[in-house]
Amino acid sequence: LDPGLPIPLYHQLYVVVKRKIEGGELRQGALIPAEKDIGAFFGVSRITVKRALDELEAEGYVSRQRGRGTHVTYK
C-alpha cells in the first residue's frame, strides 16, 4: 500500500484483497486473517482494514461473523 497515492488506504487494501479473491489465491470458504493481523502486515490501522473488509462484504466477496472470522464467499 502506498500512503503517497491520492487513493485512500482502505480502498487500496480493498483492491488488493479483491484481486486475490478474483485471481483464485483466496478461494471460496478460505478464512481471511484477523483485522489486527492484516493491519500489522500492511502497516495500517484496524479501522482501515475494517472499512476495506466491510466494502468487500457489501459486494458479496466475503462473509463476516463475530467470533468466527471473515470467510471468502465469492465463487
Give structural notes.
The chain is 47% helix and 13% strand. The chain is built from three helices and three strands; from the N terminus they run αβααββ. The protein has helices at 9-22, 35-42, 46-58, and strands spanning 31-32, 62-65, 69-72. A three-stranded antiparallel beta sheet has the order 1-3-2. Strand 2 (62-65) and strand 3 form a beta hairpin. Helix 2 packs across helix 3. The radius of gyration is 12 Å and the shape is globular. The chain starts with 8 loop residues before the first helix and ends with a strand. The relative contact order is 0.21.
Widest sheet: strand ordering:
1-3-2
Distance between the termini: 26 Å
| Low-confidence spans | none
Please give the number of β-strands. Answer: 3
Biggest β-sheet description: 3 strands, antiparallel
**Proportion of residues in extended strands:** 5-15%
Mean pLDDT figure: 96
Helix content: 40-55%
Order of helices and strands: HEHHEE
The total of helices stands at 3
The gyration radius over C-alpha positions equals 12 Å
Instruction: Tell me the structural class.
Output: alpha+beta
> Quick one: overall form?
globular
Give a quick rundown of the structure.
The chain has about 80 residues and is α+β, with helices and mostly antiparallel strands. It contains three helices and three strands.
What attributes characterize this protein structure?
about 80 residues; alpha+beta; about 15% strand; globular
What's the topology here?
Layout: H1 9-22, E1 31-32, H2 35-42, H3 46-58, E2 62-65, E3 69-72
Antiparallel strand pairs: 1-3, 2-3
